[in-house]
TrEMBL record:
Keyword Metal-binding among UniProt keywords: yes
Keyword Oxidoreductase: no
Name of the molecule in the record: 5-carboxymethyl-2-hydroxymuconate delta-isomerase
GO MF term (any one): metal ion binding
Coiled-coil regions, chain positions: none
Keywords: Isomerase, Metal-binding
Organism, as annotated: Thiopseudomonas alkaliphila
Ranges for domain Fumarylacetoacetase-like C-terminal: 19-202
Amino acid sequence: MNYQHKYTDGTRIHFPVGKVVCVGRNYAEHAKELNNPVPTEPLLFIKPGSCVVSSEGGFAIPQNRGAVHYEIEIAVIIGKPLSTKPSEEEVIDAISGFAPALDLTLREVQDGLKAKGLPWELAKSFDGACVLAPFIHRGVVKDINQLGVRLTINGEVKQEGSSADMLNPIVPLIQHMAGHFRLLPGDVILTGTPAGVGKLVAQDQLLMELVNYSSAETYVLG
């Protein structure tokens, strides 16, 4: 299966659907709002490529499985293989683009799994659990360490943050990931969410933004 990435300048690229590599608690304030300890090293987990959907045309959320929480994140799409211990230059060269993304979470399911010391896949990897907006080319972004992300729902700003606030900045984070497992073209990195997560309901209207670079309107079906 292929997933089409449509850059905001109108160009399109096609990659096989890869894995979605995520980092938890990469913003200290988000960790605090969920009463979680701030990790001393990146807390990684992986979503399958099958959970990825486009923001275009709206997206569905699970029914009768408890609260579905939104988490806005800066997404990075990888365009070249990375493995072992890549240099900063190799990581930057392998980055193809950036986009705002939603990491959706079944929060009550996740809380139950965490209480039992179990993995989070049931809460994080359902169909539609990663909503991707169109990517912008990496060359458009002036400074990836000052890249803002914002989520507005029904006209109200719910989340806003910057890569400058990350506990693990984008390039060192990707270096850490590639040190544990190979990253391939089409893999997507979700870099963590700022504070302000909350519940989605049917017909919510969302605006996902990379501040000063791109935006995508979407909505919850139903």
